[in-house]
Specification:
Layout: E1 3-8, H1 18-22, E2 28-30, E3 42-44, H2 55-59, E4 65-69, H3 70-100
Antiparallel strand pairs: 1-4, 2-3
The structure holds iron/sulfur cluster (2 copies).
One iron/sulfur cluster (SF4) binds near residues 14, 18, 64 and 65.
Length: about 110
């Protein structure tokens, strides 16, 4: 399992830096720039050093940080394709209803 991305929510992160201190590999650094909420958010400065221990996720009190691995991506692809199948079924049902009407209301 390899890390693909570390996402930090601008809306949820309050800049407490528990994630930065929790990381045993010093992957996360504190940004010099302030975001639109006036917070200097952490960012993954050394993604290549991440060992996917997820301590940053467990420590974040606001669920603001997400470690995304190649396995997560594959799982999300699976969920997306399952959702698409459902949308397709709904679309086909709507087409049938349009064509034949709602027979039990006739
Ligand atoms: S998953 Fe572990 S190594 Fe990777 S950034 Fe989070 S705390 Fe650091
Ligand atoms: S622990 Fe969570 S809220 Fe605190 S700085 Fe890290 S991402 Fe932001």
């Amino acid at each position: 399992m390899r890390v693909k991305e570390i996402k930090i929510s601008e809306d949820l992160c309050k800049g407490c830096y528990l994630c930065v201190w929790a990381c045993p590999r010093e992957v996360l650094k504190i940004s010099k720039e302030r975001n639109r909420r006036g917070i200097r958010p952490p960012f993954p400065a050394h993604l290549d050093k991440c060992i996917v221990c997820r301590l940053c996720e467990y420590r974040c009190p606001d669920f603001a940080i997400q470690v995304i691995t190649d396995e997560d991506e594959r799982m999300l692809e699976g969920i997306r394709s399952e959702e698409l199948r459902w949308y397709d079924r709904i679309r086909r049902r709507d087409e049938l209803l349009e064509k034949h009407g709602v027979w039990w209301l006739r």
